[in-house]
Amino acid sequence: MWVRPETDPPLPQEGALTQMSAVRPITVTFPDSSLPDVPVDVELRFDVGLPYAACLAFLLSPADSEADRPELCWYFSRDLLNEGRHGPVGEGDVRVRPGAAGAVLITLHGLDGRVVLSAPQDAVAAFLADSFALVPAGSESGRLDIDTALARLRGTSS
After folding, report:
1. CA torsion sign, 139 to 53 to 109 to 56?
2. Domains of the chain as residue ranges with CATH
3. CA nearest neighbour of 131 among 71, 77, 59, 74
4. Environment class of residue 94 by beta-carbon count within 10 Å: exposed (0-12), middle (13-18) or buried (19+)?
5. Is the separation of the CB atoms in 74 and 94 below 8 Å?
6. 119: which residues sit within 8 A by CB, 6+ positions away?
7. Which of 8, 20, 100, 139 is the most core-located residue (most Cβ within 10 A)?
8. Which sequence ranges are marked TM in the entry (predicted)?
9. Share of the chain above pLDDT 70, in %
10. Exposure b/e, 6-32, CB count within 10 A at least 16 = b
């Protein structure tokens, strides 16, 4: 039997609403591209069911409703994003480092190459503050929802 440690916050009362995610729309640029100053709207997302992860979501095209809008999500470590604001981190498909004054550079490596995004440091910091308010650093393992994580990996809803 699994027992919740005493340090965990109490479970919400029946009928109480609990915030389960944080979403922060931000505008990024692609400094290494042929159009380095063209802004692109993306979202940084955090879900308490995936407490170690942050999602960088690209909204691919306009749609009649938000539910119909296709998107591409890159999942990576929330700690990677946090630590990358202060110095270069990452060895795999996602690397993060401080950029020019007021920017965080996120490099995504895929099958077709790599892309470097420049995100406003204050927006990244605000997103991280929102996510750490939901799941404080060090408490992630007590919040991990394996079913949600597996559903996300399979591309199905939980």
Report:
1. negative
2. 21-152 (2.30.31.20)
3. 77
4. buried
5. yes
6. 26, 28, 44, 103, 104, 105, 106
7. 139
8. none
9. 80
10. eeeeeeeeeeeeeeeebebebebbbee
d(CA 155, CA 152): 5
| pLDDT tens-digit series, residues 86-113 | 999 999 899 999 999 899 999 999 888 9
Q: How many CB atoms lie within 10 A of CB 144?
A: 14
Reduced to 3 states (helix: H, G, I; strand: E, B; else coil), residue 96 is: strand
pTM for this prediction = 0.76
Q: How far apart are CA 135 and CA 27, in angstroms?
A: 25
Q: Which residues contact 156 (CB under 8 A, 6 or more apart)?
A: none
